[in-house]
Specification:
This protein has helices at 27-38, 74-79, 101-122, 125-137, 142-154, 165-168, 172-181, 183-209, 227-231, 269-274, 278-288, 326-336, 351-360, 401-407, 410-420, 427-437, 447-450, 480-492; strands at residues 6-10, 43-45, 213-218, 246-250, 260-265, 293-296, 304-309, 319-322, 341-343, 364-367, 389-392, 442-446. It is of the alpha/beta class and 495 residues long. The strands form two sheets. The chain has an eight-stranded parallel β-sheet with strand order 9-6-3-2-1-12-11-10. The protein starts with 5 loop residues before the first strand and ends with a helix.
């Protein structure tokens, strides 16, 4: 797809300011869109919107189709009459600039349960009709997801492969008995998805009014403990107990002697192909109903991926296996038309990956932080970019620019100053300006870099568990002065 030159900001909704412990998709997100419009930004990039599980990572979700219920806005529920002001008067002491997921999740679930109880009590015919239509529209995945989440609750949160065998293996009679006994629990999860998609639709409509395109994100692999794998076991390399026989990762390299063991079950691409890639078609279709453009994570896995035995403790002893290649994208285009995809093509890129990018015209990614090793021929330096690429100062997996600059060797600092002809005092804005001035079709930077924040504002440390995905903006940072500074960049560099 041919994109037009534009600039924008990477910020996940959880990072938005607000009073309820976590950014959400209500009025605060509307204000964010208005800030982007004031700054003349045409792009807003987010992370995956799915329901997060262990570790709170948006890249390990309970579903590839469902929405994250913790993003549901209490303010919007008040406006819809599904909550009363008394429900939100006694707030926990939430931190202003971090998400305490344990505290937020407990409080949000109490609110969402009250919203469901109010639905049943008020019996609003218009809302009930919308709810019924939503269930029909999302029939491909919704019933299985709601059933999956109700079963997880009944099993005290255990993963599906540790459930009672009849339910683990989806025995029809056992499933029917559960549905009869736990109808309310299933309907509650269904209703929460209705709330998420209803609020997101309003947000998307406002984005269109503001002339802002939303860039979404699809991880190539899915979590083992997910509705997707439980429902479609035949699409994954699993044994008879539901455990992966092969898992995803990356091989050893300069950064890791044992590689990275991600642990996601790998696809049986032959089965996907025999079914006309139906599951993937629905996944892309569902995502493109929420966003305008999709960043396809770990794009190289569609050409070839690192296959590790399911019982391995490290990623050292895997092998390269062929991905679905061009046939996959031909099938996607045949049904969905021209694909608005950004390819995350970082890491070990081989000629077959380059061939896929060139054949389908997908722009790849450039991370400017990676370019300052002292070699003027480095492909991540702006003068070496092709026009059809997307440049970032850094992403959610990198340190902030200021945090990065503080820790890099002096030789890299020196080359940075030489290359940009700057003194190193405004490193965040120096890199932002270099991105915006480049020929890259899209230029984006995380909000943390526009705020010139240090390592304390980093979003994620890949491969680590702990205090990830928790950074939030404070409420006073979206100023007219900042919007004006960004607007000037977009004007000067025709974005």
């Amino acid at each position: 797809m041919k994109f037009e030159r534009a600039g924008g900001i990477l910020l996940h909704p959880t990072c938005l300011p607000g009073s309820y412990g976590i950014g959400d998709i209500g009025p605060g997100a509307i204000r964010w869109l208005e800030f982007l419009s004031e700054a003349a930004c045409n792009l807003w990039q987010i992370l995956p919107l799915g329901p997060t599980g262990y570790g709170d990572s948006p890249y390990q979700c309970f579903s590839s189709f469902a929405g994250n219920l913790y993003l549901i806005s209490p303010e919007a529920l008040l406006e819809d009459g599904l909550l009363s002001t008394s429900n939100v008067e006694e707030l926990p002491e939430f931190a202003a600039n971090r998400v305490d997921y344990g505290k937020v999740i407990h409080w949000k679930l109490v609110l969402l349960n009250k919203a469901y109880d109010n639905l049943k009590g008020h019996n609003d015919p218009v809302l009930l009709q919308e709810f019924a239509e939503f269930q029909e529209q999302k029939s491909f995945w919704l019933a299985d997801y709601a059933l999956f989440m109700a079963l997880k609750e009944m099993h005290q949160g255990k993963p599906w492969f540790a459930w009672d065998v009849e339910l683990r293996d989806r025995d029809p009679q056992a499933i029917e008995n559960f549905k009869i006994k736990f109808t309310t629990a299933i309907e509650r999860h269904t209703f929460w998805q209705f709330l998420f998609f209803r609020q997101w639709r309003r947000l998307r409509e406002r984005a269109i009014q503001c002339g802002i395109q939303i860039i979404g994100d699809i991880p190539i692999f899915v979590a083992h403990d997910s509705s997707d794998v439980w429902t479609y076991r035949e699409l994954f390399h699993l044994d008879e107990d539901g455990m992966p026989t092969y898992v995803a990762g990356v091989p050893p390299d300069y950064f890791s002697k044992t590689g990275q063991l991600w642990g996601n079950p790998l696809y049986r691409w032959d089965v996907h192909a025999s079914q006309g890639y139906t599951w993937w078609l629905e996944r892309l279709r569902s995502t493109l109903a929420l966003v305008d453009i999709v960043r396809l994570d770990h794009f190289r896995g569609f050409a070839g991926y690192w296959e590790v035995p399911g019982d391995a403790e490290t990623a050292e002893f895997g092998r390269w296996a062929p991905g679905p290649g061009r046939d996959f994208f031909v099938a996607m285009q045949k049904t969905l038309g021209e694909l608005p995809i950004i390819a995350e093509d970082l890491g070990m890129i081989t000629p077959d990956v380059v061939d896929l990018l060139e054949e389908f015209g997908f722009p790849g990614m450039k991370i400017l932080q990676f370019g300052f090793d002292g070699n003027p021929l480095h492909p991540f330096l702006p003068h070496n970019y092709p026009k059809n690429c997307v440049v970032y100062t850094g992403t959610h997996d990198n340190d902030t620019v200021r945090g990065w600059y503080r820790r890099i060797p002096q030789a890299e600092k020196k080359f940075f100053r030489r290359y940009l002809n700057r003194n190193g005092r405004q490193v965040s804005w120096d890199l932002i300006r270099a991105c915006w001035a480049s020929v890259a079709i899209f230029a984006l930077a995380p909000m943390q870099d526009f705020l010139d924040l240090g390592n304390e504002a980093r979003m994620n440390y890949p491969g680590s568990l702990g205090d990830n995905w928790a950074w939030r903006m404070k409420g006073d940072e979206l100023t007219g002065e900042l919007a004006g500074r960004i607007r000037e960049l977009n004007y000067l560099y025709s974005r």
